[in-house]
Amino acid sequence: KDATVDFEDVGHSDSAIEMMHKYLIGHVDTSTVPTEVKHNPPPSKQTPKVSDQSSGFVSKALQFLLPLLILAIAFAMQHYGKKKQVSDS
């Protein structure tokens, strides 16, 4: 890609322009560059709205239930650990 226009649009300082001349590799012969080919993206598949609503419900339910499940497991382990310590003594 020829970045000349992009380089000039940014508004580089004079020292940057001098550096550009030091690193310049060559010039592009624009007559040999092929024209751009425009690609049309494939049409997107329409999914039924029912599945969107059900997946939204599942994700909302998991956002609520998963932390509760983790807390329940933590409390159960703590309770079990206390009983185990009392019975071991």
Descriptive overview:
This protein is mainly α and 89 residues long. It has one domain. The chain contains 3 helices and no strands. The mean pLDDT is 81.
Give the total of beta strands: 0
**Roughly what is the average pLDDT, rounded to an integer?**
81
Low-pLDDT residue intervals, each spanning 5 or more residues: none
Classify the beta-strand content into a percent band. Answer: under 5%
Give a short account of the largest sheet: none
What spatial form do the alpha-carbon principal axes imply?
A: elongated
N-to-C series of helices and strands: HHH
CA radius of gyration is 32 Å
Structural class: mainly alpha
Number of domains: 1
Helix content: 55-70%
Distance between the termini: 77 Å
Give the helix tally: 3
